[in-house]
Specification:
Layout lengths: L7 H9 L5 H4 L11 H17 L1 H5 L8 H6 L3 H7 L7 E4 L6 H6 L5 E6 L2 H13 L5 E5 L2 H8 L5 E4 L2 E2 L13 E2 L2 H11 L2 E6 L5 H7 L3 E9 L2 E10 L7 E8 L2 E8 L15 E5 L1 H6 L2 H8 L2 E2 L7 E3 L7 E11 L2 H7 L6 E4 L6 H8 L7 E7 L5 E8 L2
Parallel strand pairs: 1-2, 1-4, 2-3, 4-7, 8-10, 16-17
Antiparallel strand pairs: 5-6, 7-9, 8-9, 10-11, 12-14, 12-15, 13-14, 15-18, 17-18
């Protein structure tokens, strides 16, 4: 970390160029020859990334940013805030501290937070930034987190881990054992230091695969931001051996749509039906959860087909996803397509359907966009159907 980046004139230059193309800026002469221009350009690129994702950092003075990749990979403030609803107690240690976004928010609820980071430069940056943010209850340690756990020799109310995938396992199926730190290998040791562990993983991790590698899982949180799944949070409690609860959350502007259910419940029997007046499409967090039968039963809405994951009802219900009014329903064939859709403009979604959106557009010359929505799917009788809809929520 260089203190020269904090010079008033350099900070003013960074702020003045936040909307400038960094690639184009790189061809210009460095106005500050005493510092590597690449360092300044990185600050511009990283701070630009932080504008919407990390507004607390973006609006604070004298913040230093690590590489743009670190900013891209860190939690957003909104998902970090969600995590504060999971943890409790007075002490938490983060074994993979990174840029420190999660820890900043943990510190608003937990009395003492410990930030571990193996990268010395990043650790120094984070320590500096916490000072600028006036966050006084986070202690930063540089080095291997396993060694830090051993040397501090205490118990925490929570351990938080965000393992990163090793570079030498590209192309393989995502497994926790292929990440650093290796959580499955170290789990018994972690439980010596805390009775509660929260693990953040990328949404690419298969839920059943994660469960096969971990033990004592009490809940799995699937967190989406504006209908894009951002992270899975695995809540582990020492000696827990009961049912696993899946909790979905879709964070949107001003609200959080939540839905939860117990995995592998044998008493869940959904209703099936042909299309009724309204169509319901679950948000991405529910789609990732696989709780399709539980959604049908919980909201008393019928499924169109076992594998279609679309729901229908004659009544509008408060639903965690998109809601449409069905204005037309017809079998997928040449005559009906020419009558309803050929050459027109529609938003297209396919669910349990043998053709891709791209192929459908090309075959029937359908333009993208507009206010009309169409769903190509399969009904309970295994017939291929098309639903023309108007979005109401």
């Amino acid at each position: 970390m260089t203190s020269e980046i904090l010079k008033k004139e350099i900070q003013e230059f960074i702020n003045a160029n936040l909307n400038t193309d960094v690639a184009q800026l790189a061809f210009k002469k460095n106005p500050f020859p005493e510092i590597d221009f690449a360092v300044i350009l990185n600050q511009i690129a990283a701070k630009s990334k932080a504008k919407d994702k990390l507004p607390t950092w973006f609006t604070a003075n004298n913040i230093i940013y690590p590489g743009k990749i670190s900013v891209e990979q860190t939690s957003s403030e909104k998902t970090a805030l969600y995590k504060t609803n999971i943890v409790s107690g007075v002490s938490l240690i983060d074994l993979t501290g990174g840029f420190g976004v999660d820890d900043y928010f943990f510190a608003s609820k937990i009395k003492s937070v410990t930030h571990c980071e193996i990268n010395p430069e990043l650790s120094e940056i984070v320590r500096h930034n916490f000072e600028q943010l006036n966050c006084k209850n986070i202690e930063c340690y540089t080095g291997d987190s396993l060694e830090t756990l051993q040397s501090l020799n205490q118990k925490w109310d929570w351990i938080y881990i965000d393992p990163s995938r090793r570079n030498d396992v590209k192309g393989k199926v995502f497994m926790l054992k292929d990440c650093l730190p290796n959580v499955p290998e170290n789990l018994d040791f972690y439980f010596e230091k805390s009775d509660a562990i929260l693990i953040k993983t990328a949404p690419i991790l298969d839920i059943s695969a994660g469960l096969s590698e971990l033990k004592n899982v009490k809940a799995i949180h699937i967190v989406a931001l504006e209908n894009e799944v951002k992270e899975l949070l695995w809540e582990l409690h020492k000696d827990y051996s009961g049912e696993v609860t899946l909790k979905t959350a879709n964070i949107t502007k001003g609200t959080i749509d939540t839905f939860e259910f117990v995995m592998n419940q044998e008493s869940v029997f959904p209703e099936y039906s042909l299309p009724k007046k309204y169509l319901f499409e679950p948000n991405s967090a529910i789609m990732k959860s696989g709780g399709f039968d539980a959604v049908s039963v919980s909201y008393n809405i019928a499924k169109l087909h076992k594998h279609s994951h679309l729901y229908t009802s004659n009544e509008v219900v408060a639903f965690p996803g998109r809601i449409f009014e069905i204005t037309a329903s017809f079998p997928y064939n040449k005559t009906e397509m020419k009558n309803y859709m050929s050459g027109k403009q529609f938003n297209i979604t396919t669910r349990n359907f043998p053709e891709t959106v791209e192929n459908i557009r090309k075959k029937w010359k359908i333009k993208d966009g507009g206010n009309l929505y169409s769903f190509f799917t399969t009904d309970e009788n295994n017939n291929k159907i098309v639903l023309i809809c108007a979005k109401i929520n």
